């Protein structure tokens, strides 16, 4: 019985260690999986994880969306860089997005992600544009 409990504890520990988190983008050297450009701007990077936890790196949310539309079998978890905290990742499903012509994202989709609605609204005052959810951004990219 003692070994059984130890085995259960070890399995739970292993499971908790396999939590899915994005692999860091090495700006200036990593290549976008979709467009093959070098990922340069740490305000716009994105990472998608497949069901096995493998990271796919992108230079922008729009590249990640386009890639996942083409290869849905690779899609599981989506992370975007918080525009107001360059280099830090947030779940795309929880992010607030600003879309407008004054948002100059790498691939011209004019999309920036924010971890809070307040941060997005402040940037909206400066850059104009519309605040969107992840689902709305995905629909926008299908047009």
Automatic annotation (TrEMBL):
Record-linked PROSITE patterns: PROKAR_LIPOPROTEIN
Highest taxon in the source lineage: Bacteria
Give the keywords, sorted. Signal
Tell me the leader sequence span.
Answer: 1-21
Record's keyword annotation contains Protein biosynthesis: no
InterPro entries on file: N2O_reductase_NosL
- Protein name per Swiss-Prot or TrEMBL: NosL
């Amino acid at each position: 019985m003692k070994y059984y409990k130890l085995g259960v504890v070890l399995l739970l520990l292993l499971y908790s260690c396999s939590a899915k988190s994005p692999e860091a983008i090495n700006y200036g050297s990593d290549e976008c999986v979709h467009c093959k450009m070098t990922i340069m701007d740490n305000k716009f990077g994105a990472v998608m994880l497949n069901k096995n936890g493998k990271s796919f790196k992108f230079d922008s949310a729009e590249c990640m969306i386009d890639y996942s539309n083409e290869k849905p079998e690779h899609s599981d978890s989506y992370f975007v860089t918080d525009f107001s905290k360059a280099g830090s990742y947030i779940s795309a499903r929880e992010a607030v997005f600003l879309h407008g012509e004054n948002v100059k994202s790498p691939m011209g989709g004019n999309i920036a992600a924010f971890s809070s609605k307040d941060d997005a609204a402040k940037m909206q005052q400066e850059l104009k544009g519309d605040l969107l959810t992840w689902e709305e951004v995905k629909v926008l990219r299908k047009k």
